[in-house]
Design goal:
It is a single chain. Helices cover 33% and strands 23% of the residues. The chain is α/β, with parallel strands linked by helices. The strands form seven sheets. Strands 12-13-11-14-15-10-16 form a seven-stranded parallel β-sheet, with helices on both faces. A six-stranded mixed β-sheet has the order 5-2-1-4-3-6. A six-stranded parallel β-sheet has the order 17-27-26-18-25-24, sandwiched between helices. Helix 1 crosses helix 2 (93-100), helix 1 (76-88) crosses helix 11 and helix 18 runs parallel beside helix 19. The longest helix has 17 residues, at 661-677. The radius of gyration is 29 Å and the shape is globular.
């Protein structure tokens, strides 16, 4: 019996699905398929989550306009995954489904205009007065209740847009957003081109080392037994984790099953994608942010139709529409880029593990510096631990030397970006014809513009943060909201002309190195450069081919790259992260140092790493220099246990925001009132307090930090808090719930 009602998840920041009536004569929608429905004055594309004979509510029911898909677009496992994300991350269901379906290019959006009653009266008045001016022509085109697209309506009318705006303000017309399906003409575009040119296809698969072979045998045994399991593949940099991934995927394909591989940044680890495409050909689909919407849609459909059996991509590739998945691999599982910063605030690694569980598949988490939580689970039997403790071909790890910049200043009596040891090391590397990496994990030229008379800095107009100077663009830029302005010539608070650029970023490092080593071939790779189309891949290609001598960059150059010619790595400011107000600062410092040290000595020649720091005795610096994960793990674990942080407690960050300070305070007090009356003893609520960045993108922000050793108790409290604020009519956009936050800034 055909259903007469359906629940639809719409891409709006609201916590519910919406009930629509299925009119007679319309094709029957399906769960997991798309429909076009009216929502206010708009038409939106939504995903059907349920069919029913009776509605949840009869209030304001509207009809489905069009059924887009006659068959489910999403496999059943992805529907289950979406439901889990909605509950676990307290995310609006429509926002979750929008993440699952990157098919926005299949629909065209436009605006149409139509007459309102006042417009009909005005048109009659103009006809009676026989006035045929531009206003009359515009209203006449909308006569008879018709709607017209804005472009066609204003064609031939001088100053159309301005007249249209006036008629709308006066209530004569209304503008209605519209969505319609695009006709699919011809075949899909060709598979998106890779970002890198390699010679993987010409090379025979390497002979596995003993540790690789043992790890692979363990993995294949798990695949043979079937069912869900999670493995941590912990291997030092250069130990050959990627080759183990490749062999595991080969085993899946031989069993006629599918595989999923997540990497932190596909555009910056191009050799990984190149390897898998060369090994498995057109059975691989690549999903990453560098694709156009049409290219991404093409790859998505290849996976959905079963033409591609392996998905390789960044965070959102965890939603690849594969069926019968045997293995889900997360490379560099500790990487912060797996955590989404916008709604839905999911963690790609954790979501990948849940997907593997739903699929009855094997989850493999790989890293040289695993997150503390993953390491804890592996060492306490929740996950299996497989270790690759030596590099391929028994190559030694790079020698790491810590340069104490306090002693450097005392001996040279001057502040410099580069120590004498680093300058000398670069000189020797260039003279021997080898390559060097220099890392400073900050973008721009200078951290801020400071007045030496009154101490004021130039702040962002929308955020409570100092603007960063980018010399190449000649602009002061906010790294949070993107606001940019020209630097002032005098202090805007006291009028002093004694203003100076303070600190340094990767851009300054590049320019100073060019000045010191005029004959060297130098390039920089950071987010500013990578935003230029294909420029990042071009620089990497040149460096791998030996066409560059020295590569400067941020953390983008620290992970996932196999640079055979690099014998020297210099870390300009190893302790920059340690000053951040974040309990993960030490962990991130250790991971960054270990990862960047792993770029040196991967070829035939040994490598050296020079780490410049003002805190040479900090345990994260010392452990990073020794490349000793166990030493860092034991020390950090003691602090986490003492201060009640993960993995010993579950965390949630609840943020209240509003452009008006008084309303932000009002909503914060509403939430504080709820937390004050909550009787559950298992959750500790800290706050409210101003967020570390108290104003961001024009919003004033206050936050609560929730800690609990019981995950269920935390989820119960969060759900009740969201329901309470909804009852008190706190706007949905005013409350942000971040479950398992990676950053508290």
């Amino acid at each position: 019996m055909a259903a007469t009602y359906c629940e639809v998840a719409l891409p709006v920041p609201l916590p519910d699905t919406f009930t629509y009536r299925i009119p007679e004569g319309l094709a029957q929608p399906c769960v997991g398929g798309r429909v076009i429905v009216p929502f206010g004055a708009r038409k939106l594309v939504g995903v059907v989550t349920a069919l029913a004979a009776e509605p949840r509510t009869t209030k304001g029911l509207k009809d489905v306009v069009e059924v887009v898909d006659s068959e489910p677009l999403l496999p059943p496992v992805l529907l289950e995954l979406a439901r889990w994300m909605t509950e676990y991350y307290l995310a609006p269901p429509g926002e979750v489904f929008r993440s699952l379906l990157p098919l926005h290019d299949e629909f065209a959006r436009s605006e149409r205009a139509r007459l309102r009653p006042l417009g009909i009266e005005r048109l009659n008045e103009l006809e009676a007065s026989r006035s045929e001016n531009d206003e009359y022509q515009l209203l006449r085109r909308l006569e008879g209740g018709k709607t017209r697209t804005i472009g066609r309506l204003t064609s031939g009318v001088p100053d159309g847009p301005r007249l249209l705006a006036r008629l709308r303000r006066e209530g004569l017309i209304e503008i209605v957003p519209e969505v319609r399906r695009r006709a699919r003409e011809g075949k899909d575009e060709e598979v998106a081109p890779l970002l890198f040119e390699g010679d993987w296809a010409a090379a025979a698969p390497p002979v596995l080392t003993g540790p690789q072979q043992r790890a692979l045998e363990e993995i294949e045994g798990l695949l043979e037994r079937g069912g869900f399991a999670t493995v941590l593949l912990e291997g030092v940099t250069g130990s050959g984790k990627t080759e183990v991934y490749s062999r595991a995927i080969q085993s899946c394909l031989e069993r006629d099953r599918t595989a999923l591989l997540l990497v932190p940044e596909i555009a910056l680890t191009p050799a990984v994608a190149e390897l898998f495409v060369s090994r498995f050909g057109d059975r691989v689909a690549v999903l990453h942010s560098g694709l156009t919407p049409r290219e991404r849609s093409t790859e998505w459909w290849r996976l959905r139709r079963g033409e591609a059996r392996v998905a390789v991509g960044t965070r959102s590739a965890v939603f690849a529409p594969l069926e019968d998945v045997a293995v889900v691999i997360v490379d560099e599982e500790q990487d912060a880029s797996y955590k989404q910063a916008e709604t839905p605030r999911y963690h790609g690694r954790d979501t990948a593990v849940v997907r593997a569980k739903l699929e009855g598949a094997l989850a493999i988490l790989g890293s040289a510096t695993p997150s503390l939580e993953t390491s804890y689970y592996a060492r306490n039997a929740k996950y299996r631990l497989l270790q690759l403790e030596t590099r391929v071909a028994d190559r030694p790890l790079a020698e790491v030397r810590v340069v104490d910049m306090r002693a450097e200043f005392q001996e040279t009596k001057k502040v410099s970006l580069f120590s004498r040891a680093l300058v000398e090391g670069i000189e020797q590397t260039l003279a021997s014809g080898n390559q060097a990496l220099v890392l400073l994990n900050r973008r721009g030229y200078a951290n801020c513009l400071l007045c030496r008379k009154c101490g004021a800095t130039v702040q962002c107009k929308d955020c409570s943060i100092a603007l960063v100077y980018h010399r190449g663009r000649g602009r002061l830029i906010c790294h949070y909201c993107g606001f940019a302005r020209t630097p002032p010539k005098a202090c805007e608070k006291c009028g002093s002309e004694h203003i100076h650029y303070i600190g340094g970023g990767a851009e300054k490092v590049e320019l100073e190195l060019r000045a010191r080593f005029a004959g060297a071939r130098i390039a920089r790779l950071d987010r500013d450069v990578a935003q230029v189309a294909k420029r990042g891949a071009q620089i990497l290609r040149q460096f791998v081919r030996g066409e560059l001598d020295l590569l400067v960059g941020t953390q983008m150059i620290a992970k996932g790259h196999d640079f055979q010619g690099v014998t020297l790595v210099g870390v300009v400011s190893a302790d920059g992260i340690l000053s951040l107000p974040d309990f993960r600062a030490a962990e991130r410092t250790f991971q960054l140092l270990t990862q960047v040290a792993g770029r040196a000595g991967r070829g035939a020649l040994p490598g050296t790493v020079l780490v410049q720091t003002y805190y040479p005795d900090h345990y994260a610096i010392r452990a990073g220099a020794e490349q000793s994960f166990e030493k860092f793990y034991e020390q950090e674990l003691r602090f986490r246990r003492l201060l009640h942080y993960p993995p010993f407690t579950a965390l949630a960050n609840v943020l209240v925001r509003d452009p008006r300070l008084e309303r932000a305070v009002q909503w914060t007090r509403t939430l504080q009132d709820f937390f004050g009356r909550w009787r559950g003893a298992a959750v500790r609520v800290l706050g409210p307090a101003p967020a570390p960045i108290a104003r961001l993108r024009r919003n004033y922000r206050f936050q609560f930090l929730l800690k609990s050793p019981e995950r269920r108790a935390l989820q119960e409290l969060l759900g009740a808090a969201v329901a309470y604020t909804r009852e008190r009519e706190v706007p949905p956009g005013a409350l942000i719930v971040d479950v398992d936050p990676l950053s508290l800034i």
